[in-house]
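hey m, so remember when u said the tokens were messed up on ur end? i reran from scratch. heres the input so u can diff it against urs
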Amino acid sequence: MKNAFLLKPILIVGICLVFLSCKHANNDRLPDPKIQAGIAKVAGKLTNFHLKKGEETPILTLYVPNPVTVETGKFKTHLNEDGSFHFEVPVECTTTIGIIGSDIFNNNAFCVGLIPGEVTKLEISYDATGKIKANMVSSLGLTSDDIINYEKMYGKFLDVHDTARSYNMTPEDFSHFAIEKLLVERLKKSINDSILSEKAKYYITNECKLEYLKGCLLTYRDYIARNYRNFKPKTAPDNFTPQEPNRSYYAFLKDFKLSDPQNLYNYSYYEVLQTILSNKILNIPTIKDTPINDWLKEVKTTMSDLIGSDTGLFYDMLAANAYARQFNDELKPLSDKQKENIRSYFKNEAFTKILLKRNDAVIKLEKEKNYFKTVVNKTPEVPKEALMNAIISKYKGKVVLVDFWATWCGPCMAAMKETREVKNEMHGKDIVFVYITDVSSPVKLWEENIKIIGGEHYYLTKEEWGYAMDSFGFEGIPSYLFYDTNGVMKNKLTGYPGSEKMLKMIKELLP
């Protein structure tokens, strides 16, 4: 599309907004984080809030980004009777931004600074109209408006849908159009920078940029396929095969400054790195037992001109994320050779300590995985109306937890990880974990994923899945069914309720 290049002079101001190169000095940024393991503390207080009669004590959840081990930490605490709460959580950087949420916050969530050796003080209050305010005492220097508005603005960014037809562009023209117009428009519609400090504006904008990089530019074919479904003429065929971009398409990566340490604050940063590692066009090799310097030499032949450099934080993070991918996707501990490679490569010993500590946890998880062997079952050949009864009857005499999930469902995969502690505690008990998905999950990907899930697995047709969803009234996944030892359904719910509640619901059904 030739016209895409004519947008550049018109959108010069917008590009400055996106890449923050026109006005941001170092003092407009948060302190540059460094990789360093530590423990951060939060001492909080919720004022002007009163429990209604019969209500349970609220639970607060703190989400923490872990850029080396590639997991979002999730820590829960109960609100005390006096409104106070406390968190003490592991972090992987010298400065980190966590997010605190709770059902009592009316869909609000709050940024909180997390700094090892420092107690962050957070006060959340309700005014007479029920409006929530927050104030934080932390060396990060974020304002009350910054704390409250991050989640709102990021949510708005995700809710904005691109309104332009782009499926008929070449991949290169699309990348220019997406960065110079679509991303700029999304940012303008979602980020009200008049109420933000420059530090918060930089942080939130960067999170949005990285999310767009991951969810649009790096997943070009999926994005273009969705765009075709949304904007194709009524007379156009349903089937559409997007173009396959070549390696040069990814030249836009240099615009996202992936070696900037500010990225370590952002949850989407390690998701971008994982997407790069799994990209078929870039074809980065699995790290295996290869010495990191040798592995990076091969990586740099592909990535250095696209990134704009053959040195920098990006490469250390990519190497660490390559091991994290082995941990998380395969639940496979490090070999002795890999440990040696890690110790000899990383100049910052914090990388080594974090990866080896995570390796210890994976060894433990690998043992737990074996508590519930993976069994692939043939779907019973019965009418779809009788399918669930046919499946459940196979496990009579045991409690059955049925998990409806899909390989493409992020919340499903996150719930799988949390369920590990539930399954660990249920080892040796009369319970069966049954996992059900359908043809929307590619067979090969499904077969790979279930290796580390364990339990009993079923792969349904589109019709069987649709009937099950409708008959149980499920509108989304993950969704769960709970059956007692007599095969009678006792509970159902959508969305992972948390390990504590899941355990309680299971234990109520055990003999």
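this time it looks ok to me. The chain is about 40% helix and 20% strand. if urs says something different then somethings off w ur setup not the seq
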